[in-house]
Amino acid sequence: MTSPTRIDVALDERSYPIFVEDALIERAGEMLASFARDARVVVISDEQVWHAQGERFMDGLARTQLTCEPIILPPGEPTKSWPVLTALIDRLLALGVERKDHVVAFGGGVIGDLVGFAAAIVNRGCGFVQIPTTLLAQVDSSVGGKTAINVSAGKNLVGAFHQPSAVLIDPTCLDTLPLREVRAGYAEVVKYGLLGDADFFAWCEANGEALLQGDSAARHHAIETSVTAKAAIVGEDERETKGARALLNLGHTFGHALEAETGFSDRLLHGEAVAAGMALAFDFSAARGLCSPAEAERVRKHLADMGFRTSLAEIGIVADGKRLTEHMLHDKKKSGGRVPFILARGIGEAFVDKSVELSEVERFLDGCV
Ligand SMILES: NC(=O)c1ccc[n+]([C@@H]2O[C@H](COP(=O)([O-])OP(=O)(O)OC[C@H]3O[C@@H](n4cnc5c(N)ncnc54)[C@H](O)[C@@H]3O)[C@@H](O)[C@H]2O)c1
Ligand SMILES: [Zn+2]
């Protein structure tokens, strides 16, 4: 067992704690008591999470005599939609959820994003607590207050900034998460090393495999380091207006093109696209003479060693620069026709470059394999 950790997101009156602790959900009652009204907790989860972890959570509540109103939704990305959102809001109102109340998001990024958005708008906003159950949600989506659903025009295009009141991270929830999903979340872990912490990248090289195999100390260290990095960035740039938060998009612009090209399907999970996207961002940085080819190669090697597909050919995508850059233009982060790129001067030295011409990226991608 590793020792519990508390990390704080410093946002004045919207500040909140993040707790990282093995078997924390078995103490859910104690942790949620201050957020419950009339000893009742409204928890929203998905069928798969509830099947895998619901009993532990309910047992954790029962110890403190809290009762629970579980709302269990279908798993998967289509749950982040208008129809599910409106049904969820109706349900919360029928349960009498008021502005001062808290609801609990117990699941991966899909549940966190949907419940966070519902909490942002029901009764003009109620509180919510995140209990993330995927590695991606534990190191990324549960922290920072971005909430959203998908609409026909694109992913995450309707949402709100709404910070949770607390984030409860139990790394042992990952015991039941399929390895492919753990690996996809690991891409976001590596991202923190690549964008600003070379020592942490070296730690990933030495410990990544243990983490994927479920080693408790490795898991805890990776989550704690990632969340600390994200909390600092969010504290500095809550609404992505100052540039710091944009660094979190390392690998995401290239990755988005790959996700779009594979139809946002199981062919390529988000984290898998980010892994390949980070390899491409480093190759592109090397091609521009910003970082050494040896460093770009080191990045690719680690990702490949961890089981990621890092080339377009492995993913099954044709190196068609025009098609791929067109996907980038549709990315919501575009501003005035320009796509901001996160490039790197080396491992741990990422920066935002808003001056990259898409034609240059197109030529670069044409030459990729
Ligand atoms: N808000 C943000 O800042 C932010 C950041 C990154 C990603 N996201 C969003 O996060 C979503 C992806 O999140 P995700 O990767 O967690 O996917 P997810 O929520 O769909 O979870 C992946 C799968 O794992 C299952 N699962 C979750 N926890 C489990 C567990 N402990 N045991 C067994 N099965 C479990 C789920 O049922 C689901 O089938 C996307 O919609 C993305 O847009 C948001
Ligand atoms: Zn991501």
Word description of this protein:
The structure is a single chain. This protein has 369 residues and is of the alpha/beta class. 47% of the residues lie in helices and 17% in strands. It contains 14 helices and eleven strands. It has a seven-stranded mixed beta sheet with strand order 1-2-9-6-5-3-4, sandwiched between helices. The protein has a two-stranded antiparallel sheet with strand order 7-8. Helix 2 links the parallel strand 3 and strand 4. Helix 5 runs parallel beside helix 8 (216-236), helix 7 packs across helix 8 and helix 13 crosses helix 14. The longest helix is centred in the middle third of the chain and has 21 residues, at 216-236. The mean pLDDT is 95. Zinc ion binds at residues 140, 188, 252, 270, 274.
Features:
7-stranded mixed sheet; binds nicotinamide-adenine-dinucleotide; 17% strand; binds zinc ion; two-stranded antiparallel ribbon; alpha/beta; 14 helices; 369 residues
Distance between the termini: 44 Å
Shape: globular
Please tally the helical runs, counting DSSP H or I stretches of 4 or more residues: 14
Mean pLDDT: 95
Structural class: alpha/beta
Strand fraction equals 15-25%
Rg measurement, Å? 20 Å
The helix-strand sequence is: EEHEHEHEHEHEEEHHHHHHHHEEH
User: How would a crystallographer describe the biggest sheet?
Assistant: 7 strands, mixed
Instruction: Please count the beta strands (DSSP E, at least 2 residues each).
Output: 11
Helix content: 40-55%
Low-confidence stretches: none
Strand order, main sheet: write it out: 1-2-9-6-5-3-4
> Which small compounds were modeled alongside the protein?
nicotinamide-adenine-dinucleotide, zinc ion
